[in-house]
Amino acid sequence: MRGSIAIRRIALCFVTPMLIVTCALPGVAQQAENIPPHSKLKPLFNGKNFEGFVTLLKDHGINHDPDKVFQVEDGMLHISGEEFGGLVTRKEYENYYLRAEFKWGEKMYAPRLGKARDSGIQYNITGPLRVWGRLMEFQINEGGTGDMWVINGTGITVDGHTYQSTAEPSPTQYIRIAHIGRGPLVNVTGDRDPVNDLEKPHGEWNVLELVVAHDRILYFVNGRAALVGTNPNTTHGKILFQCEGAEVYFRNMEIAHLK
């Protein structure tokens, strides 16, 4: 999400001209948790068509995809990366466990040519459906997969610090929270975290797991705890698989209700 800013590790938050605050605190104090008990996983995406979803593109709106940004290929969701937007669930979800796999493709598009590949799973989307509306995000980004974004009014507590984004343009409209033990970000294609890289090598499948409970949110990347957040100010909403300038594939998107 909005990874066009090169970020170095610092022990405080800074403001960019694009009204984004990046909090690159190490996150080592986060206490890893296990995935809680849940019902049997069921497909969120059927691997055949976009039943249960709508397409959202910044320049074309809802369900108008003339460039075929979103396609089903061999049971996978193929996102070309050519525009900004996402494939969005029609339904809202709460109190759930989501599991999905992703891998990067090769193609990239302006304005992100030469920059770190970027995508994400956005969730707790409420309000009018638009690109980067009121939501939270499981960041998928070379060098930073497992980070969190709180955007346009959402908020959460991580490591005892509360991150509250604003619903209007301000220095805290978009806030990025580093995953556990993350190293410095370098916004170039192929970037790898030199300290705690959770991603597999380029072209391999990665497993993402997201827990959205009423009192906490948990991220896991390839079986490793990435982030623990508590007391989110939003606990339900739609889910979006993001298109942001880089070709990406998703498969085996499944969801289960927490017990």
From TrEMBL:
One of its GO terms (molecular function) is hydrolase activity. Residues 1-29 form the signal peptide. Residues 42-255 form the 3-keto-alpha-glucoside-1,2-lyase/3-keto-2-hydroxy-glucal hydratase domain. Gene3D superfamilies: Exo-inulinase, domain 1. Keywords: Plasmid, Signal. This is 3-keto-alpha-glucoside-1,2-lyase/3-keto-2-hydroxy-glucal hydratase domain-containing protein. It comes from Acidisarcina polymorpha. InterPro entries: AL/BT2_dom.
